Amino acid sequence: MSDVLPPTDDPEPGWSQSLATGAPGIALLHVELARCGLCEWSTVQHWAAATMRHEVSTHPSASLFRGAPAVAFALHAAERKAYAPALDVLDGQIRQIVQQRLATAHDRIDGQRPPALAEFDLISGLTGLGVYMLRRDRDHATLRGVLKYLVRLTDPLLSPDGLVPGWWTAHGPQDMPSPDWVGGHGNFGMAHGIAGPLALLSSAMRRGTTVAGQPEAIERVCSWLNTWRRGTAAQPWWPETISLGELRSGTSHARHPHRPSWCYGTPGIARAMQLAGLALADEHRRRSAEDALAAAIGDGLQLNRVTDASLCHGWAGLALTVWRVAADSHDPHRLTDRMPYLIGRLDRHLRDHPVRGHGLLEGAEGIHLAQHSITRTHLPLSRWDACLLLDG
User: Fold this and answer.
1) Is 222 labelled a binding residue?
2) Of 60, 140, 145, 172, which is least packed with CB atoms within 10 Å of its CB?
3) Partners of 390 in beta bridges
């Protein structure tokens, strides 16, 4: 395991309230280690204090990875009474943010306008906010409001370009208008695409929280993903995105799978599909998802497209996703048998390319969390990877 030391200070701006790059993500590492008896709670407190050094952002754009929800996610993971008063305040603020964003989203759907990725995705949108609500209170009306919205999101949308999936955005993958994406795009990924809402709908259902139309919404998304699955029966994969032209022709221009990553690739999509199969007690769907992941990690050409160690799109995220899928599989050996190889590739990459930056998604702390988790005999005590929708 790599030797990861926390930064000795917490420079500003930008560190205080970002789960991806800042103090909440760094705190999350030390929460998990402290709960396992591997670091002092005083280190957790140092970073918890850093998250609240300035007024916590409750801007309407606050999300699971930025502002009040990011801070609250890290504090909740600690399960310490000392953080309860702060969490109570943050919960009230987060619910107001969610209600504002839900009202805006429903107005947008009523007007038959396409969403921005940041409206619904895991990193910036309502899916991420739903992750937090599911952790804090899975029976709260605010969570049910998010689930009802995600059900509506799966209904087809009559856009100026004709009928499109309800999550079809008018922007490019950077969530901005682009001449390269006239008519917008459909996004498949866990971080920014429809795999994220699918995983949340499925995870909530597995935990007994359902709203009207939820099973049908899960089925609709799975059907769409099945339609766009590429490759062969033995080597299936999904494109990262499709354009309007590809949607209309029913054919993706992608000729080979991209890197097998958590954020956009087959591993993240396979985990979402596996969770759907578990939620609906659909053995064929669960098995099919696991088959796709097993094929991806057995394909040297795909693995050679992984070029960094990060949690987001590198070896750490790939290994963690495989480990989580295996933990919910009835036939885990075809996945666990590959774990030593994946861990070896991660270790070799870190040896040859030491990670200098800090942060959860692309820095040392996320890599260390993944390494720590996949070498334990139990699931993470803090359930820290719920922020990646891997916890299930």
Assistant:
1) no
2) 60
3) none
| Residues paired with 230 in a beta bridge | 237
* Euclidean distance between CA atoms 324 and 267, whole angstroms: 10
Q: Are 51 and 71 in contact (CB under 8 A)?
A: yes
Query: What is the C-alpha separation between 56 and 67, in angstroms, rounded?
Result: 6
Radius of gyration of the chain (CA): 20
Q: What angle do CA 386, 258, 172 make, to 5 degrees?
A: 75
Q: What is the C-alpha to C-alpha distance for residues 350 and 385, in angstroms, rounded to an integer? A: 21
Q: Is residue 237 within a helix (H) or strand (E), and if so which, with residue range?
A: strand 236-237
CA distance 78 to 314: 27
pTM of the model: 0.96
pLDDT in tens, the chain (392 residues): 444 555 655 555 556 799 999 999 999 999 999 999 999 999 999 999 999 988 999 999 999 999 999 999 999 999 999 999 999 999 999 999 999 999 999 999 999 999 999 999 999 999 999 999 999 988 899 999 999 999 999 999 998 889 999 999 999 999 999 999 999 999 999 999 999 999 999 999 999 999 999 999 999 999 999 999 999 999 999 999 999 999 999 999 999 999 999 999 999 999 999 999 999 999 999 999 999 999 999 999 999 999 999 999 999 999 999 999 999 999 999 999 999 999 999 999 999 999 988 999 999 999 999 999 999 989 999 999 999 999 98
Q: Which residues pair with 63 in a beta bridge?
A: 66
Q: Could you give the 3-state DSSP secondary structure of residue 185?
A: strand
C-alpha span between 57 and 52 (Å, rounded): 10
The answer to whether 387 is a known ligand-binding residue is no
**Rounded Cα distance, 48 and 213, in Å:** 39
Residue type at 276 in one-letter notation:
A
Before 13, cis peptide (omega within 30)?
Answer: yes
263 annotated as ligand-binding: yes
- In the block, tokens 């709260």 appear at 140
Pair 6, 26: CB distance under 8 Å? yes
